[in-house]
Every structure is written in C-alpha cells, then in structure tokens.
Specification:
The chain is built from nine helices and 13 strands. The chain is of the alpha+beta class. Strand 10 and strand 11 form a beta hairpin. This is PAS domain-containing protein.
C-alpha cells in the first residue's frame, strides 16, 4: 500500500545478523521516512555504524547480550543517524527478538505518550541507552517471558556453544572483558531458539505473508504470498483473527496513522498443509421439522452433510501430524505486521 502525506510512516521493520556490527539483512520501505535511507542503501551495511558514537559500545554490548541470552520482545531507546546531516541523530525505540539465526524487530520514533506506554508495558524488557530517553523508564511491572528460550538440537546449535575466548587466546574470558577491550569482531554466535518470523500485509484482510525468515515452523515455499489464516487451524481462526485485529488497533497513533503498538502474546494451532481459509462456508442445514434425510450404512442411520458441516465449523480434527501447537508474538508496524512463531 503506497504511503501518502496523510499517512506518514512512523516505524519500520528491520532484520540484522549475529555479527559484531549487526549487518542489515532486511529493512522495510518505511525506513526512508524515518532515517532517510532506501532499504538498498542499508542491506549488507553495519547497523552499529548508525548509532551515536557515545552509544556505540553500549549498543554493541546490548546486541551481544540479546543474542547470547536468547531474548524476545525487548525494547531499547537509542539514537540513530539520519541520512540528512542537518537532521543529526534521531531518538528511536528499537524492538528486538532473536529468531533462530537473526535478530528481528522494528525501529520507530521515540515520543512520550500512550503509544510509548503501550510499547513498554507489553515488552519483556526495556533498556535505556540514550540519556535523553530517561522519561521512557516508567512502565508496567515486568511479567515472566511468554516465550523463554527453547532447547536447541545439537545438529542445529553449531560450534559456537563453546566458551568465548579473546582473539588470539585459548583462555575463556568474561563478556565484560570482551567488551572492555572493544575488539573489532567476535566469534560467530550460535543459533538460538527455533523461532520463525513472518511479515504480514497489515492492509489486507487476508494478511498475506510477504516475508518468512526460515523453515522451522512452515516451509517458506508453501506460505509465501498466501493468507496467514490458511495455515491457522480452522478451530482457532476466529481467535487469531481477533488477536491480529487487536494488534492493528494498537498500531495506530492518536492521529489514526499506522504505527507500532506493542506486543501481543498467544498460543494457537498451525495447520501445516494449509487450506483455503477464505472459501470456508457451512453447507445448507437440513430443515428443523419433518423427517431427517438418512442413508443406511451397516444397518445404521447417518445424517447427510454432517461431516461437511463439522469440517466447515472447524469441529473435525485433522490428523495429529498435520497440526502444530505454537507460541506467537504479534506486533504491528507502519508497513507490516510481525508474527514470530515457535513450536510450543
């Protein structure tokens, strides 16, 4: 959906890698309105280079801690450089969630008010990097994380689970020592929880999938371009739709402009084979009065259409191997919805 002057972008979705400089892997189009860059200008470049010089070391440490502690739905307030030198550094609210081998989140303007309170009250952690953001510290009492780290199979963890050593040395060092020396790089970090990021079209009733980060939950080739609801079990479709509608309403500021709006957490069943969720309509019901249609099968009566009616209503259970119970984090942003899933 093209942006207009009446609907300015107030947040963008970003993905960075696990390297020490947190290189950009993806940035949605709204980055142009927030920081002045085209997405193509950022992809492959270090995101740390955009931070204020006084905050770079702290942001690098924050990036490292977020990965090694496998965090989800956490916020940080810091300054990022605008492309226009006259704009200087912009105070931003940055959300972060570890998604297996990448860090995914969003960047928005940091402005006091109800929107900032909603962001902070639904996050699992808030960290103030920039001294100018101290007025954002007031927030709801922190609840236990709804999506704590999960077990990583040995074949997916990689060699990076070994103790971290300083460059050129075989002796383990603490994280504090590692960053006090401010090395130019650190060893490749291990893959974390088997989470998958889906970016959905927030302006579509179907919520089509426009990005999928990996195949941990659903095969990328099967879900791209399809409605997210096609892969929600029929019995949970209305529930998930209500969650998404709620996140969309959160992700609208006081002027009615699409923005970021905090995190929503839930649990639902994924239907792996997928289906046509938009074509499900119940078959005609038999008359309430008069004889019920039946057929004789093994000497027993059987109602015609009952199975089809149950299936349309989501009452028929699919094969066990076709269903996966998942935890989900939903969040809304100016040009997309983020859904981060992992097997429950």
């Amino acid at each position: 959906m093209p942006k207009t002057k009446e609907l300015p972008a107030l947040s963008f979705i970003g993905i960075v890698d696990f390297s020490d400089k947190a290189k950009w892997l993806y940035a949605s189009r709204s980055v142009k309105e927030l920081l002045g860059y085209e997405p193509e200008e950022l992809v492959g470049k270090p995101s740390i280079d955009l931070t204020h010089p006084d905050e770079s070391a702290a942001v690098q440490r924050l990036h490292f801690d977020t990965i090694t502690q496998d965090k989800a739905a956490v916020l940080a307030y810091l300054r990022l450089r605008h492309k226009d030198p006259l704009r200087g550094y912009v105070l931003c609210c940055v959300s972060r969630t570890i998604v297996h081998t990448v860090t995914a989140g969003s960047v928005s303007f940091a402005q006091p008010g109800p929107q900032a309170m909603r962001n902070a009250s639904t996050a699992q952690e808030v960290q103030i990097i920039s001294p100018t953001a101290t007025n954002f510290q007031f927030r709801k009492w922190n609840d236990p994380s709804p999506m704590p780290p999960c077990h990583i199979p040995a074949n997916l963890a990689g060699p990076s689970n070994q103790p971290i050593t300083s460059l050129g040395s075989s002796q383990p060092v603490s994280i504090d020592d590692l960053f006090s020396n401010r090395p130019s790089s650190y060893p490749q970090l291990a893959a974390q929880s088997l989470r998958t990021l889906f970016i959905l079209n927030r302006f579509s009733v179907r919520c089509d999938v426009i990005y999928c980060s990996n195949d941990c939950v659903l095969p990328t080739t099967a879900i791209m371009g399809r409605s997210f609801y096609d892969f929600v079990a029929a019995k949970d479709q209305e529930l998930v739709r209500s969650w998404i509608d709620t996140c969309k309403s959160w992700g609208v500021n006081e002027r009615g402009q699409p923005s970021d709006g905090g995190f929503g957490f839930g649990k639902f069943t994924v239907y792996v084979p997928g289906r046509n969720s938009s074509a499900e309509t119940p078959p005609p019901q038999p008359p309430r009065h008069g004889p019920k249609p039946y057929s004789r099968e093994n000497g027993k009566k059987k109602l015609y259409g009952k199975g089809e009616a149950q299936k349309a209503k989501g009452l028929v259970k699919y094969r066990h191997e076709d269903e996966i119970l998942v935890d989900v984090i939903f969040s809304a942003h100016s040009d997309g919805l983020m859904a981060i899933l992992r097997k429950a």
